[in-house]
Every structure is written in structure tokens, then in C-alpha cells.
Design brief:
Strand content: 5-15%
Distance between the termini: 27 Å
Strand order of the largest sheet: 1-2
Radius of gyration: 15 Å
Mean pLDDT: 90
Number of helices: 5
Structural class: mainly alpha
Helix content: 55-70%
Length: 113
């Protein structure tokens, strides 16, 4: 079986009916927050998933880890946003910043028994 490619991950994030991004957008709408993902951000999430899967390949499940890392602070803080019906634009730089820790954790895996 071959590993998923960046294009595969992009299709999973963008083209499947109930993908993780659609779910995240719907969840945050309950807090009156409108989440918008730039195409570059989606491509970056796919690239990060490919890179992280190189060492420990868990397939498309890697997307859950990446999306959770990106949305962790937003999900926690959204109920307290003072401005309702605001728009949050997720860009490539934000994705890179929020997923840095995933790369650092990867380096420690070899030391854990």
C-alpha cells in the first residue's frame, strides 16, 4: 500500500462531504464564529501531514492531529469572543505556527520506550 500524497490529503480536506474542515466550521458557527480557510492553508495542512507521516505513517488520521493543533486555541477561546459573527481567516503562516510543536514532539518519540 502506498502512502498518501499531498494531493490526496488536499482532496480529503476539501472534497469529501463531511471533512474535518466542514466539521470545524460548523462547530464554530455554534459560537457565532465564521471560520474561513485559505487554499494555501489547506495545502500547507496537507504538506505537514505528509511530512509527519514520513516517520510514523498513520494515513489520513494524521489530518485530525494537524487540524486539532491548528484549532486548539480558537476552540478554547471562541465562547469568550466579544465580537459575535466575526470572521477568522486561517492562512498558511498561522498553520505553520500552530503546527510547529508537532515537529518538536516528533523528535522526542525516539527516546520514549
Amino acid at each position: 500500500m502506498e502512502s498518501l500524497t499531498k494531493d490526496d490529503f488536499v482532496k480529503i480536506l476539501r472534497d469529501t462531504k463531511h471533512n474535518l474542515l466542514v466539521q470545524a466550521i460548523a462547530l464554530l458557527k455554534t459560537e457565532q464564529v465564521n471560520l474561513v480557510f485559505e487554499q494555501e492553508a489547506i495545502t500547507e495542512m496537507a504538506q505537514i501531514s505528509v511530512e509527519l507521516n514520513e516517520e510514523d505513517n498513520i494515513g489520513a488520521r494524521r489530518l485530525r492531529t494537524v487540524v486539532d493543533a491548528i484549532l486548539e486555541d480558537i476552540n478554547f477561546e471562541a465562547p469568550d469572543f466579544e465580537i459575535k459573527n466575526c470572521f477568522l481567516l486561517i492562512g498558511k503562516e498561522y498553520v505553520r505556527e500552530k503546527t510547529k510543536q508537532l515537529y518538536q514532539n516528533r523528535d522526542f518519540k525516539k527516546w520514549i520506550l
